[in-house]
Amino acid sequence: MKMRGRLITFEGPEGGGKTTQIRKTALFLRKKGHAVLILREPGGTKTGEAVRQILLDRKQNRMTPQTELLLYLAARAQIVGEKILPALEKGIIVLLDRFEDSTVAYQGYGRGIPLNAIEMVSCSLVRGVLKPDLTVILDVDPALGLKRGGRHDRMERQSLAFHRKVRKGFISIAKKDPRRCLVIDGALDKSAVFEHIRERVERVTS
């Protein structure tokens, strides 16, 4: 199935500035005449937002890594089928706040769930052959990122050691797929970060 639109995902440790850069990217693309849809994971659909509430609830302190993984994948399956694929078929550029790389980094590298198990379930039941055209990874030291964003929800309140594993996961992902992944220092000035993003986005969407 040929996709006419583009899927651009934004990834990275907590506090990297994804929300700001997604907004800047959407504004840039819309000024160039593109139709843009902004979505987030988990969430983006009625089902996904309900799952998000469970996943980020600080009271859910006994959730197993396996349950966590399956809830994230369930929310993703819904947003892929309900929102992402229909938008791409219409030629819309989808800007997505987190996708499969976050699952690999958080539940794979962070929680220790085998990466091949995540890949198998994701490919067979969740995203199929869908992959991002571009992934922007906003890299930031976890101590700085958590200080920036705060430690409010269940995932943010995980240990610093956990978040360091997650960061290493994102770096490993980028090294394995450098053509797709653009790694940017999230500690840079917001305008400087966006200039790096703009250059790659123009190439992907032209």
What characteristics describe this protein?
globular; Rossmann fold; five-stranded parallel β-sheet; 8 helices
Q: How many strand units?
A: 5
The domain tally reads 1
Mean pLDDT across residues = 96
Q: How big a fraction of the residues is strand? A: 5-15%
The CATH architecture can be named as 3-Layer(aba) Sandwich
The CATH superfamily title: P-loop containing nucleotide triphosphate hydrolases
The CATH topology is Rossmann fold
Largest sheet, in brief, is: 5 strands, parallel
Low-confidence stretches: none
> Which outline best applies?
globular
Q: State the name of the first-level CATH class.
A: Alpha Beta
Query: Strand sequence of the main sheet, in spatial order?
Result: 2-3-1-4-5
How would you describe the overall organization of this protein?
- It is a single chain.
- This protein is of the alpha/beta class.
- The protein has a single domain, classed as P-loop containing nucleotide triphosphate hydrolases (Rossmann fold), CATH 3.40.50.
- 55% of the residues lie in helices and 13% in strands.
- The protein has 8 helices and 5 strands.
- It has helices at residues 18-31, 46-56, 65-89, 100-110, 115-126, 142-149, 160-176, 190-205, and strands at 6-11, 36-40, 93-97, 134-139, 181-185.
- It has a 5-stranded parallel sheet, with helices on both faces.
- It is globular.
- The mean pLDDT is 96.
